[in-house]
Amino acid sequence: MKKSIIYSLLIILAAFYACDPIEDRDSNSMPITADELEVTATPLQVNGVNSNKVILENHSPVLSEWNYGIGVSHKAADTVLLVVTGTTNIQFTGLNPDGSYLTKEIPVNVDELTFEVAPEWGYLCGSGERTWVWDDTDGQAVWGNGGYLGCTSPCWWTVPKADMDGQDPDFGGDGKMVFSLNGASITKSNASGSNQQVGTFSFDMSKTTGDGNGGIWAKGKLNTKNVTVLAGFQPNGGNAPVYEYDILQLDNDKMYLSWPEPGAGSWGTAWFWMFKKQ
Hints:
Elements: H1 2-18, E1 39-46, E2 49-58, E3 63-67, E4 72-73, E5 77-81, E6 86-95, E7 101-110, H2 120-125, E8 129-134, E9 143-147, E10 158-159, H3 164-167, E11 176-180, E12 185-189, E13 196-204, E14 209-210, E15 216-218, E16 220-225, E17 233-234, E18 240-241, E19 244-250, E20 254-260, E21 269-277
Antiparallel strand pairs: 1-2, 2-5, 3-4, 3-6, 6-7, 8-11, 8-21, 9-10, 9-21, 11-12, 12-13, 13-16, 14-15, 16-19, 17-18, 19-20, 20-21
């Protein structure tokens, strides 16, 4: 009986080792070149025209990164929304099994914004990028402080554009900011362009702030990363940078922002930035 069992086990083991080994095709895949990439970015057609909904597909043996301007996807297949008409270059970056990178740029033409996008993209960036400067219309103050939830512009300590060279010597009264759809980026510079800082931005128009009387004081939030807006610091906080702003007004011509000092309640100290489209 024991011999029979041992003999049966030997037969099973022999059959197992005679089989071909399982192949890990992913780990053994050979790296490919950029010319061998099989990637597409195709706008969805609606009523015969290219909409702003774009289908991304990677059929290559590489990991995926799609940069479509206002965002990044790491999926092999995804659907994203573009926010402007015209041609947008979507950049695909692939990671080979050997750790090497390869890129390909795919132009995508959008005929119309069939699918709704936040209008703030157009306000901030125009059709691709937009430059913002201090709004000194009618000699108004462009920077300063006032009452949180009460004022909508500097109404206590008020600073005109002519005095901003002293308040913000790195960028001054003639500084500018370029908001771009390419990477959702901000480039802040002085008048000559000799001093530049680059970062990114995002916004959330669902984060409104009430005025305490049943109305809306701020219509959303603007967030920046690695860069602030012009004079984006806390004068009463050691000039620490400010990266989150209440949006008081944002349209095709004006961008008015505010930031309350920590712990500020109604009519506590808030700071205000007044910008206009160049």
